[in-house]
Specification:
Length: about 280
Amino acid sequence: MSAQTFAGEVPAPDRRETADAWSGRFLGERTLGYSETDAILYALAVGAPAGELDLVFEDRLRVLPSFGLTLAQWAPDLLAGQGAFDNRAVHGSQELTVLKPLPRSGELKLSARVGEVWDKGSAAVFNVLVECEYFVATWSIFAPGTGGYDGDRGPGRTPAPAGEPAGTAGFQTSPNQAALYRLLGDRHHIHIDPQAARRIGQDRPILHGLASLASATLSLAGMAGAHPADIVQLAGRFSGVVFPGDEMTVRTWEDGRFDALVGDKPVISDGLAVFR
């Protein structure tokens, strides 16, 4: 990725304030550039095969919309760096609304802020919104130890889809998928270093949640008879761990809802994928 510029970042609240004091905080603006090579690396890192030339060949390239999430990762990282939560926090869920297709290369001017902060009792959920002319993205960060201040609990869980799935597809993640994906910006050690993974109770490095979510969209597009770059709405809750090399099963329902499993264990729940 090319150099970035940033401006307008706002100091953190007083550390003695409750989590809801972060709600509405402006996190700043950044302009980030990317090349066709970055977009192609992303497609390969989320499982696009070499034969899908419109995802991996610059002469025909269509950029996967979820690539924009790699450019916006600085916003939740900035919130963590300002002390909103500690290293027990996890990426709970993700939403992406696509406004128009990403160009093959160029610059994006991104603006970030904290949205709602919900009190879940023993934890709080921080919603981080990043906007630009191409998409709106929301990270929901589940942060233990920051709740219990009698705030709004936020919406309840979405009921599971009713009835049998309309389609089911399996796909194999790559053993080197996390090693590739981290080159796009999320270099947390738990995705590459076994010792770091053991510190969070895993016996080996885990796949990024956003990588597993984007991988699922490739199968979802196939079942919908759509091109994966034509997705306009994407959402999912990270409900389990995926290891590089795991086989995932995606199930979809008629209304665009989906989930994903490894074996019989859910790894993505409350999924939504809508294609143009």
